[in-house]
Amino acid sequence: MARRLPPLNALRVFEAAARVESFSAAADELCVTHGAVSRQVAQLEAWLGLKLFERRGRRVVLTVSGRAYLAEISAAFDRIALATNEQLRTTRQQIVRVNAPTTFALRWLLPQLSNFQFTNPAIEVRLTTSDEPIEKLGDTCDVAIRGSEQKSAGYQVSEFLSEVRLPVCSPKVFESHPIRAVADLAQHTLLHTATYPGLWTEWLAASGHAGLVPRHSQQLDHFYLTLQAAIDGLGIAMGPTALVALDVEEGRLVFPFDGPALPAWRYCSYVRDARRDDPAIAVFLTWLRELGQRFSRHA
After folding, report:
1. 55 dihedral zone (left: phi>0; alpha: psi -120 to 50; beta)
2. What gap in Å lies between CA 208 and CA 293, rounded to an integer?
C-alpha cells in the first residue's frame, strides 16, 4: 500500500522552524529566505488541513497540533539521520597514505597494488615517494617504507621484505652471447648506477674474478633506469631480487648465476604510535607482510 506523505521539503522546513520556533532562524539554518520558509509551512498546513503555528506579532508559536506533529517528525528525522550516518560509516572510503622510495614503489609496490585494491575496495592507498628520513615525514603519511632501519622513536617498526643482489639481464642478451661462467661477462656490457658505484666491483671480487674487464660499461643516474636498461637489453645489471622478481616471473629478465649473492635491503614499515590501531592501516600492513614472505630472499 502506497504511503501517504506530505511534501518532503515542506516537512524539512517545518521541522527546522518548529524546533527553533522562528522562521528567520530556520531560514538561516537552511540557507533560504524568510519568505521561502513561510511558503513551505503554509503549503504543509494546507496539505494537512491543520494550523501548525500561531502568529503572535513577529513571533511564531507552535499550536497543540504543531507540537504533537513536531515530536513525531523530529523522531523520524532522527531515525533517518542515524541510518544515514551508519551507512556512511560502513561504506565511506578509508584512506591509507603510504610513502616509499621511488624505485621500490615503481618496481615492487605499484605492480601489486591492484590486487590489494581488488580485495579491499573500501581502502584507498595514496602513494607518494621520497627518501626523506622518517622523522621528517611527520603526519604527512600513515605508513612509511624504507630499505634500511632508521631512528624510530614514536613508531611501530616491522620488517616485511629482504632481498639480495644478483646479476640480471634480458633473455635476449643471455641468448645472444651465452653466459655459462663469470668469465663470459667479458663479452658483455655491465650496467652501473651512479648511487651504487661499487656493486659490480664487489660482486666480481666475491666471485673470484676481481680483474675481469667487460666489453663495455654504462652508467645511469637512477637505479630504476638501470633496471629498465637491463630489461631493454642494454646490458647486465646488479639486480635486487625482490625488485626484479615479477620481471623474472614474466620472462623479461633472467638470473645468469645463482651466486654469489650480495646482501641488499631489508625493507621495514613505519607507523606512528598514534595510528597503530587504525583498522585500515592494520589491513594494509598484514597484506604487506604476507606479500613480503613471497618475495623475500636472504644471502
Report:
1. beta
2. 31
What cell was used for 178? 651465452
Domains and CATH numbers, the chain: 8-91 (1.10.10.10), 94-299 (3.40.190.290)
Total residue length of the chain:
299
pLDDT band at 90 (very low <50, low <70, confident <90, very high): low
Please report, for residues 51, 140, 164, 175, 238, the alpha-carbon distance to residue 171 in angstroms, rounded to integers and kept in the order given.
Answer: 86, 42, 21, 6, 15
pLDDT of residue 92: 59
- What are the tens digits of pLDDT across the range 191-203? 999 988 899 999 9
Single out the residue of 30, 9, 45, 8 nearest to residue 55, CA to CA.
Answer: 45
What is the pLDDT, as a whole number, of residue 204?
Answer: 94
pLDDT at 89: 61
Count of CB atoms situated within 10 Å of the CB of 96: 23
Q: Is the CA virtual torsion 70, 72, 73, 75 positive or negative? A: positive
pTM for the model: 0.64
Per DSSP, the three-state class of 94 is strand
Segment 259-265 shows an average pLDDT of 89
Beta strand pairing call for 237-240 and 155-168? antiparallel
In 3-state terms, the chain is what percent helix, strand and coil (to 5)? 45, 25, 30
